Amino acid sequence: MENKIRSLRMEHISKRFPGVLASDDISISVGEGEVLALVGENGAGKTTLMNILMGLYQPDEGRILINDEEVRFRGPEDAFRAGLGMVHQTYMLVPSMTVTENIALGYKKAWKHMHLDLAAVRSRVVEISERYGLAVNPDAYIWQLSVGEQQKVELVKTLCLGAKFLILDEPTSALTPQEVDELIVLLHKMTEELSIIFISHKLQEVKALSNKVTILRHGKVVFSGNTDDYSSQEIAAKMTGHEIVLPKNQGNPSNDEVALSIRDLVVMSDRKTTALDHLSLDIHSGEIVGLAGVSGNGQRELAEAINGLRKVESGSISFYGKEIAGCTPREVINEGMGYIPEERNTEGIVPAFSIKENFILKDVSSAPFSKGGFLDGKKIDSTAESLVERFDVRCPGISTAAGSLSGGNIQKVILAREIERRPKFLVAVYPTRGLDMGAVEFIHQELLAIREKGIGILLISEELDEIMDLSDRIAVIYKGSIQRVLDKAEATRERLGILMAGVKEE
Amino acid sequence: MIDIITNMLSMCIPFSVALLLASIGEMFNQRAGVFNLGCEGVMAMGAFVGMLIPFMAGGGGAVSEWYNFLGFAAAALLGALFGLFFGVVTVTFRAPQGIAGIGLQMFGVGTAGTLFRHFVGGTQSIPGIPDIDIPLLSDIPFFGDVLFSHNAVAYLAYIFIPVAWYILFKTPWGLKVRAVGTNPRAADSMGINVSRTRYEALMLGGALAGLAGAYLSIAQAKMFSDTLISGRGFIAVALVYFGHWHPAQIMGGALLFTLAQTFQTIVQSMGISFPYELAVMLPYILVIVVLSFTSRNQTTAPVSLGKPFNREIRT
Predict the structure, then answer these.
(1) N or C, where is chain A less crowded by C-beta within 10 Å?
(2) Are A94 and B191 within 8 A, CB to CB?
(3) What is the total count of domains within chain B?
(4) Residues A177, A180, A184, A190: what is their CA dihedral angle, to the nearest 10 degrees?
(5) Which stretches of chain B drop beneath a pLDDT of 70?
C-alpha cells in the first residue's frame, strides 16, 4: 500500500449516459513524477473520465492498471486506498464544518469507536500544510474561507488522506490571477513527490505545468504528445478542431456622450459591510470599460446596484441623464439596460424553462410576444429559431430545457436575449468564466460588434487578458472604489496587477 | 401564588419529555438530510404498543415494572422499523419526503387507532410508572418539586440531551450524519455511504419517536386514545427548526412550548375568567410567532435537507 505509483494507465474506457457517449474508447497513461494535462472543450468528457478513475462512475468497458496490475474501484474509498486523490471542480467540502472536521470525514485513523480524535486530525493537517507550504487554518469554518483558500483545504485534504497521485479538475477556474500563479508554483514543488493529472482548458497553465498533454473532443482522444513539442496555438487548434485567434478591440476611443454616470455610490454587501465606498465612474456610449480587480472587491455589488437588484445607500447612477438609483429591476430594464449576470445558471436563465421561454423572459408582457394577455406562440417560436441559428446555440431544439445545455450555450442564450432586446447599454459580469476557447471567441466577437453599434459596455472580469483585449479604458476596483482609470495604451499586466493589489500610484 | 408557579413548573419537566424525545429523534433525521413528517404516526404506534403490553399483562391492574420496560422497548423497536421503512421509501426509492411523511403519519395514527379498538376497546387505564424522589435533592424547597421528583424516563430523557450532543459532534457517526445532510456529494467523495448513514439516522429517529409515544401512554396519560398525540409529532418537527438542529436549543424550545401549555391548564383550572379557547391556542401561536422571528442561519442548517441523493445525477 505504501508503494509508489510508478505508472497509471486507463485502457479503452467507454461510458454511456442516457443519450450520450461520454467516454469513447479512451486510453491515457501517466508515469512517475509526470504531469499529464487533460485538455478539451466543455462537455468533451474530461470530468467523466476522472470520475471513472476515482470509482465514482463505473465504466461500461475498459480497464485501469496501476503499476501494470489491473485494479477495480467500486467507490472512492478503493481509489484512496490505491493512493489516488482528486480535487473536484466544485469543491467537496461541508460548509458548516471546520477544516479539521472536513478532513476527519475521510481520515479513518481518527475514527475511534465512540470518539472522534479531532486532535490527531488537526496535528496531521498542520504537518501536511507545513510540509507542502499550504497555509490553512485548521479551525476555520469552510463558509468563512475564500475560494482560493477552500482549494488549499482541498489539496491539504487529499494529501492528508495519503494521496500519491493527484487529480485536479479545473483547479484554476475560480481563482484570481494571483492565486493561479501561486498554485502553479505550489504544484511544481509537489511534482517532486507526486504524479498529477490536471484538467484544464487554459493553455498557459497547460504549458506552464505539464510534461504531457492529452486532448479530448466529444469523448474521444484526438491527440496525445509531449507538451514542450507543441505551441499553445497548436494545442488550441487541436482542441477545437480549428485555429483560434481571439479578437481584439482595434477601434478608436469613443468621444460620444456619457451613457452611464455613477457618482459617490455607496452600497452594502450581504454581510452588511460597505461593498462600494463612494464609487464614481463614467462610461460613454460605444465604449467598453473593463473593470479589473480581485473578485470580492465590490464588482458583484456594483452590477447589482446598477440593475436595481441591490439597495443603493447613497450616491447617484445617471443613465442617459435619468436617475436610476433606487429604481426597480423592471424600471431599469425598461430604460434600456442589458445585463449578463455573474451566475448564469441561477440568475441568467430559469434552468427548468425551455430555451424559447428563456429568450422572452424580459418581454413576456409586452408586444410582440404578448397580445391581449396571451402569449403569441408562433412569434416566440420563429424568434427563438432565428436566435438559435444566429448565435449558434448547440441544442436539440428550442423546447429543450435551458438548464440542460453546456455553460457556453447557456451564455449564448443569455447573450442572444440581451442583444436582441437592443439595449442602450450592457453590463457583462464574468461573461466567459469557465467557457472553452470556441465560446470565448464567439462572445468576444459579439461584444465588440455591439460596441461598434454605439452601445456602451461595462465589462467586469477577472481575466486580465480578456479585459486588455476588449476594453477602451480599464478601471481598477479595489475595496469598493475605483483606484484608477487607465487608457488601453497605458495598461500593462504588471501595472494592473499592482493597482489591483491596492497600491496607489503617485 | 408561589404554589401555582411551583405547580406549573413541576408539571413542565414531565410533560415536555415526549416532545423532547421526538424532536431529538427528528433532529437526527434532519441532520442527515431527511425530514420525517410521519413522526406523529410513529408516536401513535409507539404509544399504542407501549400501552398494550402492560395492559395485556395486567388486564388494567398492577403489573411488574418489567412489562412497562418491555412496552418502551417494543415501542422503540417498532419506531426503528418505521424509520427503516421510511428510509426504503425516501432514500432508496427517493420519494418526495413531504408526501411520504404525511402518508406515514396517516398510516401510523390510523393503524394505532384501529388496533386499539380491536385489542383494547374503550378507555382503559394502566398503572403507569411511579415518580422517583431523589433522596436529599427532592427535599430542597421549590427546586425539589420542580426538578427532582419525576419518573425515571424523564430523568433519562434529559440525560440524553448531552449524550445526543456528544453523538452528533464528537463521534465519527455524528460527523457522517452532519456531512450527508449538508453536502452528500462531498461525503460520497470521501467514501462515506450516504444511503446507509441516512438509514441509520432514520432508524434512530424512529426509535426515539416510538419512545416518545410510549412515554405519553405509559408515563403521562397512563392510557391510550386516538387523540393522545394531538399534533405533538408536528410540533416536534417545528421545534427542530426552532432549535437550529442543536440539542440544547431544541430542549429550550420543548420547555418553552410545554410551559405555555401548563400555563393554560393552570389558568383554566383556577377558573380565571379568560376565554379558554384562546388559552388553548397559546402554545401553538407561540410556536408560530417564535418560528417566524428566529433567524435563518444558513451556516448551521443541513442545506441538503429534503433532497434525495443520486451519485450519477448532477444537480
Answers:
(1) C
(2) no
(3) 1
(4) 160
(5) 294-299, 312-315
Q: Cβ contact (<8 Å) for B311 and A77? A: no
B300 touches chain A (CB under 8 A): yes
Measured between beta carbons, the chain A residues lying within 8 angstroms of B182 are 94-97
Min Cα separation B189/chain A (Å) = 6
The letter for the amino acid at A411 is Q
> Does B188 contact A at CB distance below 8 Å?
yes
- What's the pLDDT band for A240 if we cut at 50, 70, 90? confident
Neighbours of A231 (CB within 10 A): 11
CA distance to A38, A53, A465, B46, per residue, from A17 (Å) = 21, 16, 36, 45
Q: What is the pLDDT of residues A403-450, one digit of tens each?
A: 888 788 899 999 999 999 899 999 999 998 878 778 888 999 999 999
How close does chain B come to A478, measured CA to CA in Å?
28
- Chain B residues touching residue A117 (CB < 8 angstroms): none
- C-alpha cell at position B165: 450532543
**Domain presence at residue B83:** yes
Residue type at A157? K
pLDDT band at A161 (very low <50, low <70, confident <90, very high): confident
In a mutagenesis test of the A interface, which of B31, B183, B189, B245 is the best target, namely the one with the most A β-carbons within 10 Å?
Answer: B189
Q: What stretches of A93-231 adopt beta strand conformation (E)?
A: 165-169, 195-200, 212-217, 220-226
Q: Please report residues of B whose CB lies closer than 8 A to that of A87.
A: none
Query: Is position B196 within any domain?
Result: yes
d(CA A404, CA A395): 9
Please give the residue range of the domain that contains residue B119.
2-125+135-230
Would you state the pLDDT for residue A19? 67
Q: Does B304 touch chain A (CB under 8 A)?
A: no
Q: Which residues of A311-349 are buried (b: 16+ CB within 10 A; e: fewer)?
A: ebeebebbbbeeebbebeeeebbebbbbbbbbebeeebb
Contacts of B189 in chain A (CB under 8 A): 54, 56, 76, 86, 88, 92
C-beta separation of A499 from A505 below 8 A: yes
User: Is the separation of the CB atoms in A466 and A291 below 8 Å?
Assistant: no
* Structural domains of chain A in order of their starting residue, each with its CATH number: 7-240 (3.40.50.300), 245-336+423-506 (3.40.50.300), 351-421 (no CATH)
**Residue A57 to residue B312, Cβ atoms within 8 A:** yes
What are A298-353's pLDDT values in tens digits?
999 999 999 999 999 999 999 999 999 989 999 999 999 999 998 888 889 998 89
Domain presence at residue B274:
no
Sheet of A312-319, strand order = A274-284, A258-268, A312-319, A322-323
Amino acid of residue B144: G
- The number of beta carbons lying within 10 Å of the beta carbon of residue A375 is 14
Q: A96 vs B300: CB contact, 8 Å cut-off?
A: yes
Task: List the single residue in A with minimal CA-CA distance to B312.
Answer: A57
> CA of B190: which chain A residue's CA is closest?
A106
Residue B301 lies in a domain: no
Nearest to A88 among B189, B302, B311 (CB): B189
**pLDDT score for A1:** 41
Q: What are the pLDDT digits (tens) for A3-44?
A: 678 889 999 999 887 767 888 899 999 988 899 999 887 777
pTM for the whole thing? 0.77
Q: Spell out a b/e string for B65-92, using b for 16 or more CB atoms within 10 Å of the CB, else e.
A: eebbbbbbbbbbebbbbbbebbbebbbe
Q: Which of residues 72-131 of B touch A (CB under 8 A)?
A: none
ipTM: 0.85
